[in-house]
Each structure stands twice: as C-alpha cells, then as structure tokens.
Amino acid sequence: MHLRAPAILVASRPYGETAAIARLLTEEHGLVAGYVAGGRGRQLRPVMIPGNSVALELRAKSASQLPFARLELQESRAPWMTEPLPAAAITWACALTATALPERNPYPSLYQALGALLTAICHAPSARGWLAAMNAYEAMLLRELGYGGAKPDMAGEIEAQFQVFRALHKPLERYILADSRSDVMAARVALGERLGRMLT
C-alpha cells in the first residue's frame, strides 16, 4: 500500500520511546493510521498536534501491517491550542472524528466539513462564528453513520445554537460513542462548560 494525500491529523498517541501512532482523516481514503518514527521528537512535535493539516505519505508492505507515515505540515493549529475555548473545540472535533469513524471508509463530505470547522474555530473572533458549524458537523456525522437526524438550523443567536449543541449530546453519546473504551465525551463536556461560562 502506498498513498499520498492531504490529511487532517485527528489523533496522536505515544508509541515506544520516540515514535507515535497517528490517525488522520483523508478525503478519498477516510480515516487511516500510521507509525510516525520520531513523532515525539523535537522536530516532529509541532506537526503532531490534532487539528493540523498535513501532507501525508503512507507506505506498507502488506495490508496487515501498520503503515509507516511521513507527515509534512501544511497548516498549524498550534497557535489556537493555547486559547482555552478554541483548544477545547479543536480537541473535541478531532477526538469525535478519530473515535467515531471506521478506518478506510471514505467520507469526503466529513473531511471537507471538518476542515471548514477547524478554519472557522481558528479564524472567527468568537464562538458566535463557529458554534453553528460545530452543530452542523456533529449532525452530519450522525447522518453519515446512519443515525439520521435533521439538519440543525444554522441561523439564530449564540444562545439558540448552544441549545442545539446541548440537544446533540445525547444522540452522540448513545449512538456514536456508546462502545468507546475511552471517555471521549469528557472533551465535549469540557467544551460545553466553557461555552456555558461564555454565555453567562
């Protein structure tokens, strides 16, 4: 297997002393995983931030082998990971994607929507500029995975969008993340708490 594609890094976990296992969302190949040699080293640490857009090269000798991945940074989300609310939003969007999607099933609409959502989070002056996009992404993910659900209203004030955000919590927890071994919803709870404080 050999592929090259633009990708969004959605998860990274340590492997061995200096390596990492990366999970990345691509448009044509869906969610893929790869071994990144030196992924925890000084040179690659800035690349291995969830939310980053990268140029991905993935190579494997057989379909059963974990591929080796080379990543080249295209767009960094690092500047926004120091700001509590954008960091919480990026963390949740990436964790949801990495946990919910099956590997190697293409979801081009989700790839495009996640890229647009991350751009909105990083460049909108406040959550007023991206919360509707977050709601739309979560609802799209539910639909793409076969759990239906109406498209949320993208209009309305931030308070109305926050109510939509709260309403989406239960179907995500019940249908998408019920079997997750990690407490991914904790990232959404943390985001909700920060949004709630912003509104009070």
Instruction: Name the strands of the widest sheet in spatial order.
Output: 3-2-1-4-5
Q: Give the biggest beta sheet.
A: 5 strands, antiparallel
Strand content: 15-25%
> What's the multimeric state?
single chain
What share of the residues lie within helices? Answer: 40-55%
Summarize the helix and strand pattern as letters. Answer: EEEEEHHHHHH
Low-confidence stretches: none
Count of DSSP helices? 6
Mean pLDDT: 94
From the structure above, extract its key features.
five-stranded antiparallel β-sheet; OB fold (Dihydrolipoamide Acetyltransferase, E2P); alpha+beta; globular; 40% helix; 200 residues
What does this 3D model show about the protein?
The protein is an alpha+beta fold and 200 residues long. It has 2 domains: 2-75, Nucleic acid-binding proteins (OB fold (Dihydrolipoamide Acetyltransferase, E2P)), CATH 2.40.50.140; 78-199. 40% of the residues lie in helices and 22% in strands. It has helices spanning 84-100, 108-123, 131-144, 158-167, 169-176, 185-199, and strands at 2-15, 19-26, 30-36, 53-59, 68-75. Strands 3-2-1-4-5 form a 5-stranded antiparallel β-sheet. Helix 1 packs antiparallel against helix 6 and helix 3 runs parallel beside helix 4 (158-167). The longest helix has 17 residues, at 84-100. It is globular. It starts with a strand and ends with a helix.
